[in-house]
Amino acid sequence: MRALACAVALATLAPASRGAGEAARVGRIAHVVDGDTVEILLNDRRVRVRLAGIEAPTRGKFDALRSRQSLVQLCGGEIATLEPKGRARGGVMPARVTCAGTDAAAEQVRRGMASVSADGSAELHAAEKEARAARRGVWSAQVSATTGAK
User: Fold this and answer.
1) Nearest CA to 12 among 38, 48, 36?
2) What residue ranges define each of the domains in the chain, with the CATH number in brackets?
3) Coil, helix or strand at residue 41
4) CA nearest 35: which of 123, 120, 134, 105?
5) 50 phi, psi to nearest 5 deg
6) Torsion angles phi and psi, residue 33, rounded to 5
7) Is 81 in a helix, a strand, or coil?
8) Is this structure's pTM higher than 0.90?
């Protein structure tokens, strides 16, 4: 039953005949699941959306809570614009999400709260390079752990 509900909700976001490049949709962030996943209220349905191109620490990992809190601060309760970036997997739609005019994925990476996945854009890679150099977020712990710096 839950799978059916997810399929119906995703159909309102991205009809099967459309995929990446579909027109942007607007909804309100209803819940921040973790540092790279949100639930968006769209046409009175909750749609689970993953920020395309990034990977945030998962539950139980170092900085997972800080990453989620960062995304809450950035997008929690905000009106968001979605640009689907491919097909949904497991009931989760990958999309570029913009909150209050800010690309949420790029800002999470810039803050050091996520890393760039293999399919990340040049903009995301530049933001990660900046975060690494500044030793922000997840990069501060890795640098300290590998170099012994405090």
Assistant:
1) 48
2) 2-147 (2.40.50.90)
3) strand
4) 105
5) -105, 135
6) -80, -50
7) strand
8) no
- The secondary element (H helix, E strand) that includes residue 2 is helix 2-13
Distance separating the N- and C-terminal Cα atoms of the chain: 50
pLDDT tens sequence across 21-43: 578 999 999 999 999 999 999 99
Look up tokens 């769209």; give the residue: 42
* Separation in Å, CA 2 to CA 15, 18, 40, 56, 104: 19, 23, 17, 25, 27
CA-CA distance, 52 to 119, in Å (whole number)? Answer: 8
What distance in Å separates the CA atoms of residue 109 and residue 121, rounded to the nearest whole number?
12
Q: b vs e for 63-75, b when ≥16 Cβ sit within 10 Å of the residue's Cβ?
A: bbebbbebbeebb
How many alpha carbons fall within 13 Å on the CB side of residue 45?
15
Task: Locate 144 and state its tokens.
Answer: 């300290």
pLDDT in tens, 114-123: 999 998 999 9
